[in-house]
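Journal club prep — side note

Before the paper discussion, L.F. wants everyone to see what a predicted structure for a comparable chain looks like in token form. Sequence:
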Amino acid sequence: MSERIELRDAAGAAATVIPQLGGWLLRYARPVEGHGLVEALRDDEAVVARYPKEMWAGNPVLFPMVSYSHLPGAQHHYEWEGRRFPLPQHGFARRSRWTVTARATDSVTMELVESEESLAVYPFRFRYLLTYRLADGRLHWEQEIANRSDVPMPFGAGFHPYFRLPLGAASRRDDCHVRCPRGIRYNPVGLSEAYFTEPFPAQDVPVARDVAGTIQVGDLAAREFALVDRAAGLEVVLNWEAAPEHRFCALWSQTTSADFYCIEPWTALPNAFSRPDDREILLLAPGETFRSAMWVDIRKV
């Protein structure tokens, strides 16, 4: 039985984390005047029961790569320093057991380090610390990734929050949109062997728009997106201004009727290991530590 850690703060906000199931944040909610307790994330017990086959809920952790890698004749493989390795989509962190290193009423810090299983697919020693913390109703999360190897360590990182749709009990999904900053849209060629780009003006993307093929945006004017439920007068805001290496954002939902919508901060685009000239893969020197911070909030429009 996996332990569920329940977090609370003085503002009445709540969060639920399951460290043994990939450091999985399953819930974030806070009270909003006139609305009661508003849930930001899709929390589906049927999805939890299917772990690790499916993680279409909460906020899965993506490491040491985001999305997929592809080599000729070898899907979900990457190459580094002349060696080929298999690696599942979005990496192994979300399918690994994390260990709690610190815990308080309103926060939890978890740790993931290399194992025999990880070294077989990712030959680097690392320490990944992830903290979830509630403060004044807002949910913050911070990550620290340290290279404990004696050689440079390549990686990609990201998060995959499944935001609940709609936000209001009496709203319709199609009443919602995603408020996006200006950027550049990256369109894949083939299996992301290359990309072509086009301007992406600041805009409200209707969630009724089909994004099953994923909208990938980079070179952002601001690292803040919001899922807005106009009928309810509510929005969920995701901000990663304190995570500048997360240069990209992916917008995805399974269908135009799914009860979730994903706004995903990434450090790289799909198949980044196979596109070294694009310099998306981050490289940590031995002993170096990567740090970033993000927050999510629920508020009135």
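L.F.'s comment for the group: The two ends are 40 Å apart (CA to CA). Keep this in mind when we get to the figures.
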